[in-house]
UniProtKB/TrEMBL annotation:
GO terms for biological process: DNA replication proofreading. One of its GO terms (molecular function) is nucleic acid binding. CDD domains: DEDDh (cd06127). InterPro entries: Ribonucl_H, RNaseH-like_sf, RNaseH_sf. It holds the Pfam family RNase_T. GO terms for cellular component: cytosol. This is DNA polymerase III subunit epsilon. Residues 47-213 form the Exonuclease domain.
Length: 294
């Protein structure tokens, strides 16, 4: 009787919190294994591989992948995630101690990965089954995934961090955990690869005030071709103006760069030529097959 009374009281408190403008209830994200399946998805559907990599650092040339997870999901024409087709996670011994800071963030210890060997070909085959691979920071995950897994260099990629205007949509910041909280959810575990993929899928499924889903918006933007404009030998005094126009400095390529829609590429090119006639331009077309490789 006591347990029943406690349960009833808890439900009353929850309802009270839901109606209280000074309180906010966070609910646990839906586990991938419990994702509701929709039997009649609106065609056409898109197969998306949601991926996350945990690594020993930020440099794919020097650092190693220690954990990688993927969820293969089906997205219908309305942007609804209709099925989780499969999910998987693996760990890899990097052959050297994991930095303490990485262990503090991810919870992954040397003992967790000791002697572990990732099934790279099997994991790569899962990614090849997808129409597009999607991460919350594809500029990071793509570089590590392509270095770690065989024969995935020509896959299409989308990025939920950069292929959606979170601030414009009314969100405060764009970190995965913070976004999950802002849509009324919480992840019981963060920064393991599988936990982050689970959180990402829940975020992608969120339906926005205009009726569209996050994943629908992300895929729509990612699929559009763009133009990369790089400026070599840019005028030092034009740095501030270039930043205001969206240009960023890439030290690896020794150039200022901006990625714009193909309809705006002509205007940016003319501006550079008129304001910095001695600068050299490097222009390339970008698709979701080549985006986030650099």
């Amino acid at each position: 009787m006591m347990k029943q009374d406690e349960s009833s009281a808890a439900k009353k408190r929850q309802c009270s919190c839901d109606d209280d403008p000074d309180r906010r209830v966070l609910r646990k994200i839906t586990p991938l294994g419990e994702w509701p399946e929709i039997s009649n998805p609106v065609q056409p559907t898109t197969i998306v591989a949601a991926i996350d990599c945990e690594t020993t650092g930020f440099d794919p040339e020097e650092d190693a992948v220690i954990e990688m997870a993927v969820a293969l999901i089906e997205v219908d024409a309305t942007g609804c995630i209709t099925r989780v087709l499969r999910k998987g996670c693996g760990t890899q011994d990097p052959g050297r101690p994991i930095p303490q800071r990485v262990t503090q963030i991810t919870g992954i210890t040397d003992a967790d990965v000791a002697g572990k060997n990732f099934r790279r070909e099997a994991f790569a085959e899962v990614l090849r089954q997808a129409d597009v691979v999607l991460a919350h920071n594809s500029g990071f995950d793509r570089k590590f995934a392509e270095r770690f897994l065989p024969d995935i260099e020509n896959l299409a990629w989308a990025c939920s961090l950069n292929d959606f205007d979170w601030i414009g949509a009314g969100f405060d910041g764009a970190k995965l955990g913070h976004l999950i909280n802002q849509i009324g959810l919480f992840a019981p575990k963060a920064h393991s690869a599988l936990a982050d993929v689970e959180a990402l899928v829940n975020l992608l499924a969120h339906r926005l005030p205009d009726g569209e889903t996050v994943v629908g918006k992300v895929l729509e933007k990612a699929a559009k071709p763009t133009t990369m404009i790089e400026v070599i030998n840019a005028y030092y005094g034009k740095r501030g103006e270039m930043k205001r126009r969206g240009f960023r400095w890439n030290p690896a390529r020794n150039a200022w760069w901006v990625e714009v829609g193909q309809d705006k590429a002509g205007d940016e090119t003319i501006w550079v030529e008129e304001t910095m006639p001695n600068a050299r331009l490097r222009i390339s077309d970008i698709t979701w097959h080549t985006r986030y490789q650099r």
